[in-house]
Every structure is written in C-alpha cells, then in structure tokens.
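re: that chain from earlier
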Amino acid sequence: MVKKLFTLFLLLSINIGFANVGLAQIASVEASARPQPTDQEIKNQCALIGNLTFLAIEKFKKGRELDQAKDELSRVAETAFNKEEFAAFSDQLRERYNAAVLDAFLQDISDPKTAAQEQIKDCIRRNL
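^ sequence. v structure.
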C-alpha cells in the first residue's frame, strides 16, 4: 500500500514537473513572438509621439483643458496608432502618448516646437 502511494506520488510529481516546463516554454515562446521594433521603427514611433505632443500643446495654448485636448486629438491619434507601421505597438504608443500629453499639460509648456523636439530626443535616447 505504501509502495503504491509512493509510486503514485512520484508519477504525479513527474507529471506536474513536465507540465510546469511546458508552461514555461509556452511563456517563453509568447515573449519571443512579440515584435521587437527596429531602430528606424523606434525613431518613427518617437516622431509620432513628438508630433502628437506638439498638437496637444497647441490645444493647451488655445485654452483647452487636458481632457478637451485629448478628445479633440483622439481621432488623429487613433488613426496614427492603427496605421500598419504602428499597429503592432499601438498599446505602447497610446501609453507613451498619454504620458507625454499629461507631462506637457502639467508642466504648462508653451513652446510646442521645442517640447516636441525634446520629446523625440528623450524617447529615442530611452529606447535605442
């Protein structure tokens, strides 16, 4: 009886071990399946965020609040995020865009051109 229980325990342990290895392999394959942007794609993404930041600052200069500016730019931003060259990274781009616009609003930046250029430089430096 003890021998049968021990054998059963041993077999279950081995099966669970194999199951865990299988899950680890699946997770590893999923992580490697995510597309990694090339240097040029990173530069293009950073330019997109910089350009959208420029437009948002222009809206702020005209007296728009954060939510108003984001609403007015939402169709432009969504169209850009869904373009073929950006579609694989659209979630990341939305996060970067929201962070950049919030930052520009909170800092009360008044020069959109300089802010956009700085945004692009910082983005490239962080991602390349």
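Residues 39-127 form one domain.
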